[in-house]
Amino acid sequence: MICYRPERISDWSGVVIVTDFHCPNCGTPVNELARYARMTVCEACDTAILIEDDAVRAAGVKGVMHDTVSLFDIGDTVKAGGQVITLGGKARFSYGRGFWDEFWGVDEKNAPVWVSLDEGDVAIQRELDDRSLSSAVQKARIGDAIRMGGTEYVITEIEQAECVALRGVFDHELKVGETYNFFNASGRGSAILSYEYWDGGAQLYLGDWFNPFDIVVEPAS
Ligand SMILES: [Zn+2]
User: Fold this and answer.
1) What percentage of the chain exceeds 90 in pLDDT?
2) Which residue ranges does the record assign to the DUF4178 domain (predicted)?
3) Over the chain, what is the mean pLDDT?
4) Ligand 1 center to residue 22 CA distance, Å?
């Protein structure tokens, strides 16, 4: 006999589809995009919620996000470079020069995409599963070149950023107050490689910069 939890079913790719999911704090149904997410912020009571294998649990605070005029926001669809991305979550990070917003969304195939918005500059990136970079790269400096997959990238920015606020849904856990180390490196054309690292791990993101004028935004209906 096959047992399953009717509220949690995995699709063919292993993505967990949550069909019936409510905030453990107030019982409000969560954003539909949480079907593809690991974490969400309840729209009703602002509890940050972690979606785990057979449970949901409260996971902290959402932080304060002072609203600013933004090119796009949660719920909007962003079209750029042949990609169509529906935005589900917004994380704000503060760093030396101010702050920037990192939007998590899914494309038409429900694959995860990150869209960052920093003073009008837009970068669209996806997680890159590449283990060829040694952790020695964490000692690199601005201007250093790194080589990956036959392409050279030059480091343009090395920063430490703190997550200050969260809204909406994400496919991995983020915490307000946590700090992240990263560098950005430019490749051919508008290519941008980001390398995020912490004690014991690292994650690469690869994508492109876009001119805001080359982006079409369809507001949430
Ligand atoms: Zn709630």
Assistant:
1) 43
2) 74-212
3) 82
4) 8
Query: What are the tens digits of pLDDT across the range 155-192?
Result: 999 999 999 988 888 888 888 888 989 999 999 999 99
Find the farthest-apart pair of alpha carbons in the chain and give their distance in angstroms, rounded.
60
DSSP state of 15: P
Euclidean distance between CA atoms 186 and 180, whole angstroms: 20
Q: 41 alpha carbon to ligand 1 midpoint, in Å?
A: 8
Task: Give the β-pairing of 48-51 and 56-58.
Answer: antiparallel
Q: Which of 21, 48, 26 is nearest to 36 (CA)?
A: 21
Q: Give the distance (Å) from ligand 1 centre to CA of residue 169.
A: 13
Half-sphere exposure of 152 (CA within 13 A, CB side): 4
Q: What separation in Å is there between the alpha carbon of 46 and the centre of ligand 1? A: 6
Tokens at 207, concatenated: 């994508």
Q: How far is the CA of 94 from the centre of ligand 1 (A)?
A: 26
pLDDT at position 143 is 96
**pLDDT, tens digit, 9 for 90 and up, residues 76-108:** 999 999 999 999 999 999 987 788 999 999 999
CA of 48 to the centre of ligand 1 (A): 8
Gap from CA of 103 to ligand 1 centroid (Å): 21
